[in-house]
Structure formats: C-alpha cells, structure tokens
C-alpha cells in the first residue's frame, strides 16, 4: 500500500479561534483528522508527524527548514511521498528552500494549506489536503509522478520555487507567473509531465546549511542615498536588488557608487524584477548596463522568494564568491529560465 507521511507544521488549515482574543491560533492535528473523516477512506497508509510547536508560517526560519529536510531524509525510505501542511504566508519560501535542500529528490514533497481553517463550513482545507495526498501518492509505471517540491492550492499544482502567494483573501492564493502549472484538479487529476522535473540520476541527499545574512534593496523613484546605504553598508554578505522592469535602476552617480562600493567589499548582488512576470535582461537598457558591467548577477525570472532562499542556501555551502555568482545564474532546481 502507498505510504504517505503528513508533516504538520501549522498554518490556518489547523487554526482555531481563540475565544479570549478573537484571533486565529495554531491548534493540534487531531482536530484536522476529526474534520476530515474522508482521510480514513483513502486507500493509502497515512502517518503523521506534528511539529512542536506548530506555527503560523510567519514564524518560519532556516532552522525549521533544516528540521523539515532532516525529517524527510530520515523517513525517505519508509514513505512514497510527503505532504507538508504549512501556513500559506511563507509557503513559497519554504518550498523554494526545500527545493535546494533536497537534492536529487525522487519522491513528491507537496506543500499545502488553506485560507480558511478546516473547522469552518466554507473551508478550502479539505479539498487542498485530500488532493495533495492524492498527488503525493500518484505513480506512473511504478514511479512517483511528481518527484519534486511543489505546492498544491485551489485545484492547481505549482513548482514550489516558481510559486508566489499573490492573494491574501482568495482561495486562489498562489500563482506561478513564469512557469506553467504541473497539474490541474478538476473532474480528473491531469498532470503535465513535460513541465515536471525528470527523475534524478544521483542518490538523494540533503543540505541544511544556510547563511541568512542578506539584505534586500527595493527600488522606487526618489530613493535616497541614506536609504540605499542602510543596506549596502549594513554588513550583509549579499543583497537582493529588486529592480524595475527588466532589471533597471536609477543611473544617478551616487547610486552606482554605492553598489560599486558594495561589490568592491565582496558583496554579492543579484538583480531580480519587481514585475511578477517576465525576466531580468541586464544590458537591455542603459539603466542596467552599468549594473552588468560592475558584476551584478542576473536573477533572470526568479521570484523574490526563490532569490532570497537560493542566496541563503548557496552562501551557506562555503563556496567562494565567484562560484556562488555562477550558480545564481543557472538553474539548479528548475527555479529559473535563462534567456527567455
Ligand atoms: N497566517 C497564516 C500562515 O501563514 C496564513 C494561512 O495559512 N492562510 O500561517
């Protein structure tokens, strides 16, 4: 019988209303099980691992990502697939981080959650949970259909490191602007194999070291030298530059000087776009040519979530600056497309 491990980290899916404060707080897995009696009718052997404490995903961090990766490694041979119940707020960050940590993954790791708690009558949690389990259990020719880290939410399956949470109210909370969905749930569960990562050829291993000492510099017209220096001179090891359009910034000499100084101080700067769709193309405009010339790295069509976690992951591996820069610009887990 197919064996699936459900890993419960928290999130709205398992929350209940605190009578005293009126706010939603994380609650135990048992009530999830009680609210979804259908789980007992599934033809899989389900096991549950509950995190302690269970969290609102705003409290996720690299240490907890590492615990998740270690748990999957420890249980890897005993299960056919993994379903992680996770708050939606930072689900795309965790999915991106795991896509780098779980190297040569040959089994499905499906993250899901919900916008309304499972105990609410109009909840989206039941469908998300049941279909996520089905996806994790689906095989083709005896092999897992989706051997990668993905997010299932509101009838769509996304590659984890291509997904973003783009809506805080709709059940359709996630999207993947730069990569097609991997599967769609309607009357049938339809997979799109051409977009799913191939089965790995090397043995599964994990990497759990992260360096979170990074900063984010988001461009806006009128940004001051003081605001820029608060990041470039802050002692971070690397910077995600959220630029305009296809990777453009102001060409004001003071701004270029700030970036040049940061590069001279061996900081890595990766340029991604504030636009949700499309790719960075350094050198397309005069306003990004200087960035390219000074050694700023193109993040191509990476999401913010992926740029942040990929930087933390690469910098945690003890690599030199040149190697980190080189790996930033190539796809290591299907997270970017070069030259689109
Ligand atoms: N605040 C919740 C969380 O991320 C939101 C959710 O799960 N829908 O844990």
Automatic annotation (TrEMBL):
Residues covered by the L-asparaginase N-terminal domain: 3-191
**Top-level taxonomic group:** Bacteria
Family membership: Belongs to the asparaginase 1 family.
The UniProt entry's coiled-coil ranges are none
Under the heading CDD domains, the entry gives: L-asparaginase_I (cd08963)
UniProt-annotated catalytic positions: 12
- What is the official name of this protein in its record? Asparaginase
Spell out the InterPro entries in the cross-references.
AsnA_fam, Asp/glu_Ase-like_sf, Asparaginase/glutaminase-like, Asparaginase/glutaminase_AS1, Asparaginase_C, L-asparaginase_C, L-asparaginase_I, L-asparaginase_N
Query: Is-annotated flag, keyword Hydrolase?
Result: yes
Asparaginase/glutaminase C-terminal domain mapped to chain residues: 213-327
What does the UniProt keyword field contain?
A: Hydrolase
